[in-house]
Amino acid sequence: MAEWFKARAWKACVGLYPTGSSNLPLSASLLDPPPSQAHPSDMPLAEPILKELGQLLGLERVLTAQEDLIPYSFDGTAALREMPGCVVFPKTTQEVAQLLQLANHHRIPVVTRGSGTGLSGGSVPSPNAIVLCLVQMNRILELDQANLTLLAEAGATTQAISDATTAAGLFYPPDPGSMKISTIGGNVAENSGGLRGLKYGVTRNYVMGLEVVLPNGEILWTGNKCVKDVAGYSLKDLFVGSEGTLGIITQVLLRLIPKPASKKTMVATFAEMDQAAEAVSAIIAAPIIPCTLEFLDRITICCVEDYAKIGLPLDCEALLLMETDGHPAVVAEEAAHMEQICRAKGSTDVRVARDDIDAALLASARRSAFSALARVAPTTILEDATVPRSELAKMIRFIQEIAKKFNLRIGTFGHMGDGNLHPTCLTDERNPEEMHRVELAFKEIFAEAVRLGGTITGEHGIGIAKKSFLPDFAGNAQMRVLRELRRTLDPNQILNPGKMFDLA
Ligand SMILES: Cc1cc2nc3c(=O)[nH]c(=O)nc-3n(C[C@H](O)[C@H](O)[C@H](O)COP(=O)(O)OP(=O)(O)OC[C@H]3O[C@@H](n4cnc5c(N)ncnc54)[C@H](O)[C@@H]3O)c2cc1C
After folding, report:
1. Fewer CB within 10 Å: N-end or C-end of the chain?
2. Which residues fall within 8 angstroms of residue 152, CB to CB, at 6 or more apart?
3. How many CB atoms lie within 10 A of CB 244?
């Protein structure tokens, strides 16, 4: 286990554990002042609390057996795991509210979980926490053609939302690589991006309203179907990206847009990294904003080809996946222009998809990048250092130098069009000496990203993995406001304690 991850994880998690029995009826017990006695972190969830949870949801929706809890002890982040006290599966907002009242009363940590695909440790349990998993709240409640909105429960998968939208001839653009299983609640809580972020933006740009259960069990609605609404602070924007620390999102109202009439997909390969970076700059300066402008480096290309057998050339340093969508005439013109730019910048091979099947095959070069890299080594640490587009070539070169300096295998791919890179270290968490080098390497990578005017995370969030970098990045004034907001909304610190930042 990587101590540098673990150490960051739980130092703030003291004094938040169950205080034992409550035989009062749930509603009455919740009105009482909370017990003052705090329990040590290694104390399991008390039987009476498990009994209360069972009475609330039914025993079949409360997991307590060790073997049942193991799948909920980690998320998509390498080298982080912790056993929860139990896992509960509410089916309604009212149940979520009652669960939070109970947890707040007993000061039990609650870790909200969608599908657990997060890459910063956000849904890794605090020790003995209640993991509140929303996957059974997965209904699509309404698709409103007149207002171009979709209302869904938070546990609906991104794919289900995309499918329902497509079936109505409309378009929901955010497409995280995990969309087949990630939930819309998780997407909102992380403000997830995706391959279409360059042209269409990220999840936040499509959230019109949210139903949120606050830590004390109050249910709050923020936002509505109006295109314009400036009444009060924009609270929905506070909950977008809040990583399960301020409230539990139970319903999401999303903005939909018309479906683009056509799309063209192409792949260009380059003998040198700088040629690819220059092609990206020239495409944007053209000005063309493709819906997808993704990048793979040599290590990633080789792993993808070995895994997916797409027919990618293995003798190149960089690959760009480009997609343009919209009116067919505009798409044809933009595609021809992008091809011309890539060739002018030195691309030796530009492959344009012949049809939808070919397009899906080319796009799979990028979509399978993470899985392809993950096969190569026991531990895959994927980060998302992000820089302004103009600094991309510098940042990619820096990552390559760092890999050499620390003798590590780092494959890099990512959203070239929006400066969001995924340096991915292929390592082995059982080797503490190598993990120490990984830690040092990423420290330098984040410092360089910030020095170039970028950020420590473009889309994966802070969670546990990036927690130690936030104070320096955000500065004192911002940290003070962040802490005050969290104390105000969650005075007993039950929601995702120890994540994102410490309150002390
Ligand atoms: C293969 C792969 C590809 C990926 N590609 C992308 C990508 O392209 N872009 C991108 O941005 N991310 C990507 N991710 C990261 C991840 O999929 C996203 O962060 C996703 O939004 C997480 O959704 P989830 O349902 O799995 O949430 P979880 O991992 O379960 O939770 C994530 C965080 O959100 C909180 N949370 C979850 N649901 C709620 C809720 N209803 N209310 C309040 N808080 C909640 C959790 O407490 C946790 O802090 C990828 C991950 C993998 C494994």
Report:
1. C
2. 139, 140, 141, 160, 161, 184, 251, 252, 254
3. 26
Higher-pLDDT residue of 499, 390: 499
**Ligand 1 atom 49 nearest Cα:** 122
At residue 15 the predicted structure's pLDDT band, cuts being 50, 70 and 90, is: very low
Kindly indicate the confidence band of residue 9, based on its pLDDT and cuts at 50, 70 and 90: very low
- Which of 190, 200, 245 for mutating ligand 1's site (highest number of atoms within 8 Å of CB)? 190
User: Cα(first)–Cα(last) distance of the chain, in Å?
Assistant: 26
Span from the CA of 358 to the centroid of ligand 1 (angstroms): 29
Average pLDDT of 175-190? 96
Confidence grade of residue 43 (pLDDT, cut at 50, 70, 90)? low
- Ligand 1 atom nearest 195 alpha carbon: 8
Tell me what the pLDDT averaged over the chain comes to.
89
* Gap between the Cα atoms of 163 and 169, Å rounded: 10
Backbone phi, then psi, for 144, in 5-degree steps?
A: -100, 100
Distance 190 CA to ligand 1 centre (A): 6
Give the nearest ligand 1 atom to 194 CA: 8
